[in-house]
């Protein structure tokens, strides 16, 4: 607030100005190196996403996935649907429903088969005979 300090701050010092005019700064960026990302890539545009189709299993999985991909719960669901009703859940319908390539859906249905749990009636169960372990001599 003092006028003397304000005057000192705003006063130009000719000696410092001449020294400042003699300063020359040259700046150079380091050469740009292209790094091998090891297969990694940055997306050039924002990936299009779709909402998942989970029904009553919604709380178990992610909510959005990129188009052309499916979540784990969706994969298990569509494999089970195809197994139970192959006439309704064809590869073409699955590809359209989940925004997938038909070729990938055919591979998925060919190479991934959900487990089938079979329960045998007691009458048909075969008894497992136990063997006595052999004595090592």
TrEMBL record:
One of its GO terms (cellular component) is mitochondrion. It comes from the Eukaryota. One of its GO terms (biological process) is mitochondrial respiratory chain complex I assembly. Pfam families: UPF0240. InterPro entries: NDUFAF4. Binds calmodulin. Interacts with NDUFAF3. Belongs to the NDUFAF4 family. This is NADH dehydrogenase [ubiquinone] 1 alpha subcomplex assembly factor 4. It comes from Spizella passerina.
